[in-house]
Amino acid sequence: MGLGSIVKIFMPKDKVFYSLFEEVATNLSNMSDLFIKAVKEEDVSKRVELLKSLEEWEHKNDIVTHKIFVELGRNFITPFDREDIHYLATALDDIADFMWGSAKRMINYNMSEIDTITVGFARIIHDAVKLLNTGVNELRNMRDLRAVTEVCVNVNSLENEGDDLLDKGMMELFSSKIEPVEIIKKKDLYQMLELVTDKCEDAANVIESIIIKYA
Amino acid sequence: MGLGSIVKIFMPKDKVFYSLFEEVATNLSNMSDLFIKAVKEEDVSKRVELLKSLEEWEHKNDIVTHKIFVELGRNFITPFDREDIHYLATALDDIADFMWGSAKRMINYNMSEIDTITVGFARIIHDAVKLLNTGVNELRNMRDLRAVTEVCVNVNSLENEGDDLLDKGMMELFSSKIEPVEIIKKKDLYQMLELVTDKCEDAANVIESIIIKYA
Amino acid sequence: MGLGSIVKIFMPKDKVFYSLFEEVATNLSNMSDLFIKAVKEEDVSKRVELLKSLEEWEHKNDIVTHKIFVELGRNFITPFDREDIHYLATALDDIADFMWGSAKRMINYNMSEIDTITVGFARIIHDAVKLLNTGVNELRNMRDLRAVTEVCVNVNSLENEGDDLLDKGMMELFSSKIEPVEIIKKKDLYQMLELVTDKCEDAANVIESIIIKYA
C-alpha cells in the first residue's frame, strides 16, 4: 500500500475537525447574537429570558468541544498541529463559557440597568465572533493568508478596544459615588466581558499561526 | 541491538512518571482530607492549625512536581505524550496551590465562621480528588477505559456543582445585608475554591485524553 | 547533500529566536527600571509620566512577541522545542502586559500614595527580570546549567517573596479601617503585581527545562 492510499484512508477522519470547529464558530455566533439582543432589550424580564437562553448554547458547545478532544485522542493524523487544535478548541470554548458567565452575572446580580460599557462590550464581542467565523471557515481551504491576517488584525483591534473600555468602566466606577457593593458587581462583570475579548484574540492568534504554517 | 532491547533500556526510566504522578495524587488526597476536617472543626484555633498544615503538603507537592518537569526534560521517551505530562502535572499542582491558597485566605482574613458554601466546596473538592486518585492510578495499566471515563464524567459533574455553588454563594452575598468588606473576603475565597474544582476538571480531562489515545 | 550542509542551511534562520528573546528580555529590563523609578518618585505628576511611559515598551514588546510567533510558524527547525518557544514567549509577554497593567491601575485609580507593598513588588519584579535576562542570554550557548539553575532558584525565591507580600498586603487592608473602595483598588493592584512575579517564575521554569534538555 503506497503513501497515497494511506493518506486517502486517513483524510476522511481528518476532515472531522473542520466540521467540528465550524459548528463551534456557529454556536458562538448565535450566542453573540443573543447577547447583543439581550443587552439592548429594555424590558427586564424579556432580557433575562434572552440571557438565560445562552446557557443552552454554552452546554451544546461543551459537547462539541468534548468531541474535538476525543477526536484529537483518536486520530493520529490531524489536519494541522495537535497543539494548535488543542489551543483553538480551548480558546473558543472559553469564549462560550465566559459569554454565558457574563450573562449569568447579569441575571444573578439582578443588574436591571444595562450601562453603556456593557453594551460596548456586547458589540465588540459580537464583531470579534463574526470575524472568528470567517477565520475558522478559512481553515478548510488554508489558502487565503490575506483574509486571515485581516481577521487577526481586526480581532486584535477589538481586543484593544475592550481593554480601553474596561479602563473607562473602572475609572467611572471609582470616580463616581457608586455604592461599594455595586462596584464589586460591575467590576466582576466588566472583567469577565474583557476576558471574552481576550479569548477572541487568543483564538484569532491560533488561527493565524495555523495559516502561516500551512498556507 | 534490536528494538526490544532499546525499549527495555528506556522503560525503567520511563516508569518514573507513574510513581511521581501517584505521589502527587496521594499528596492531594491528604490535603483534601485535612481541608474537609478543618472546615468541619468547630474550635477555631484547632481549625487554624489544620488549615496551616496544608502548607507543608503544598510544599512537598511542589518538589514532586518539579521532579516531574526535570524528568520530562531528561527523558526522550515518555510513557505518554510530553504535552499531556506537562498539562497533567500543571493541573494537579494548581489543585494543591489553590487548596492551600483557599486555606490561607481563611486564616489571613480571620474567617472565624465557616459557612455552608465553604463546607460544600470542601466536600466537592474532596470527592473530586479521590476520583483523580483512581484516574491517576489507572494510567499505569492504561486498560480500563470505562473506569477512567466514569472518573472523568463524575469529576465534570462535581465541577458543575462547584459552579452552581459559587453562583449560590454570590447571590447570597449580594442579596443580604453583609458589609462590603465581608463580601470582598468571601468572594475571594469562593472564587479560589471554585478554581480548585476547575483544575480538578482539567486534570480529569487530561487523564481521559491520555487513556483514549493509548487504551 | 550531507547532514552538515542541511544544518548550515537551517541555522541562520534558526538563530533568529535567540535575538528575538534577547530583545524581549531587554524590553522587560527597561520596563522594570522605569517601574521601580516610578514607585520611588515622590512627585505625583512625574511619577504618572514614568508610569505612562511603560505603555510604549509594552507595545514594542507585543510586536517582538508577534514576530516570535510568526517565526515559529515559518520555521520547521527551531533551536529548542516548539512548545517551549511558545511557553517562553507567552510568559515573557505576560510579564510586560501585567507590568503595564499594574502601572495603568496606579494611574487610572488615582493612587497618589505609593505604599510599601507596592514598592516591595517593584523591587521583586526588578530583580526577577534581571535574573531572567541572564537566563535568556544563556539560551544561546546552552552550556552553563549551573548558572541557569541558580537563576531559576532565585526567581522562585522572589516569587515566594511576592506571595508573602500579597498575603501581608491583604491582611493589612482587611485589618485596618480602610474604605471598601480603597480595598477594592489596592487588592486589584496587589493581585496584578503578584501575577507579574508568577509569570517571571513561569518564564524561569521554561528556561530551566530547555537547558535541562539540551545542556
Annotation keywords:
globular, Methane Monooxygenase Hydroxylase, Chain G, domain 1, 0% strand, 7 helices, homotrimer, mainly alpha, disordered N terminus, 215 residues
Biggest interface found = A-C, 15 and 18 residues
Helix/strand/pairing category of chain A: mainly alpha
Largest sheet of chain A: none
Count the strands of chain A? 0
Fraction of residues in β-strands of chain A:
under 5%
Question: SSE layout and pairings?
Answer:
3 copies of one chain form a homotrimer.
Chain A: H1 3-14, H2 16-40, H3 44-74, H4 82-108, H5 116-138, H6 145-175, H7 180-214
Task: Explain the overall architecture.
The structure is a homotrimer of 215-residue chains. Chain A is an all-alpha fold and 215 residues long. Chain A has a single domain, classed as Phosphate transport system protein phou homolog 2, domain 2 (Methane Monooxygenase Hydroxylase, Chain G, domain 1). Helices cover 86% and strands 0% of the residues of chain A. Chain A contains 7 helices and no strands. The first copy, chain A, has helices at residues 3-14, 16-40, 44-74, 82-108, 116-138, 145-175, 180-214. Chain A is globular, with a radius of gyration of 19 Å. The relative contact order of chain A is 0.14. Chains in contact: A-B, A-C, B-C. The A-C interface holds A 83, 167, 170-171, 174, 180, 183-184, 187, 205, 208-210, 212-213 and C 69-70, 72-74, 82-83, 86, 104, 108-110, 179-181, 184-185, 188.
